[in-house]
Amino acid sequence: MVHFGKTLTLASLFLFLMLISVGGASGKILYNDTIEQGDGFQINDYVIDVAEVFPGQDSVIIQVYEGDTKDPKYDKLISVGGSYKFKIEGEDVEITAISVHSGVVPRAKLAITITDDDFINSKTLGVVNGGHSEAELSSTPVLAISKSVDKSNINVGDIIRVTVTVENTGDGDAHDVIFSDPNQERFILIDDILGSPGRIDVSTSDAVKKIYVYDLKATEAGTFSLNPTTAIFTNSVGDSFPQASSNRPAVTVSGSSLMKNATLDVTMEVDRYTIDRNKDLQGTVRIKNTGNAPASAVTVGIIVPEGLEYVSGDSGIEEISGVPTIYMESFGVQQEKEIIFKLKAAEEGTYTLSADSSYLFSNGVDSEMQEVSSSTVTKSVYVTKGKYDHLFEQPIYVYLIPLLLIGVIASWVYHRHKQYKF
């Protein structure tokens, strides 16, 4: 009986080696290890559950779930040495039962091979504790951004209210959503009612969300299409999606063209968006007055997030309450200015810089000065582990032992040198 058991084990091992040989010729081995009963292995939106293990019968029940369905797409009993093949997105996936083991939690050793793994998302690949019910599936959020105005026919000096909403019509939540709403030429921002939404999530279960509500005053006659509001975002597993964009409502403005407007375009960028920790990066703020009136009391605050540190900047930058700030008494029509500053990447992480600007101008009609404020945000800056960071992660004895050895050797050489000298 013992001899028969050894023969069966050797036969199973021989069969496994043959399977590996065949798998190596026709595809790739995704997994070759032990999975506990109740756990699973995920490939994109498919999860292979080890539903039940029978050590006494040398067999295992495998259930394959697609997406978030409650019932398995495939449900198979596989004996040790046996296999089961099915398709995922047109590619053959083969599950082979290598062995089964008893214990507090029974487990099965499986080999999972696939003909071609080019379509596999590495973010949704691997063992899932708890099986399909605990799997984090990739999804496709779809952001429908709508921009509307309360009046589309107005006179110079009139005010319109702009409302921007968003709805997620996709099949998964949108994460880390960053909206951008450019300044509108020929209009002045009078009241920013909601302010910047910052980085938010937009769930498929959410009602239509208001993102921006603000009032604009028309300063020039003509028909204008408002700039679109855009958004960048990811899904639940961190996949990035193309930028979403809103519609562009048109506004017709009639009346006097004597009203003047100072329009400052403020942009900010850095020289690189992926950087090692403790390295420096250079930022640039560009300001241009594209309006027909000079601006005064121009202030641009550079908001540096924790994890990045402000190091230095051009003479036009002064730190006020810890915020690097650009201040100019006046800024003429068509004037342009570029200000350089330097930052240090202090901590690993993902960061965005923002520039909050404000200025005053006279429109030539109203007696009071007009005040305008806006904000611009850079693309994400990724700070990664520094070149020598791993050295500081080692236990202190890794450094002390070599130093002690060097000290002992140096002492011995010095002692021998003195003996030789006398």
Automatic annotation (TrEMBL):
Transmembrane segments: 396-414
Keywords, alphabetical: Membrane, Transmembrane, Transmembrane helix
Record carries keyword 4Fe-4S: no
Entry keyword annotation includes Zinc-finger: no
Domain DUF11: 143-229, 264-359
Protein name in UniProt: DUF11 domain-containing protein
Organism, scientific name: Methanolobus halotolerans
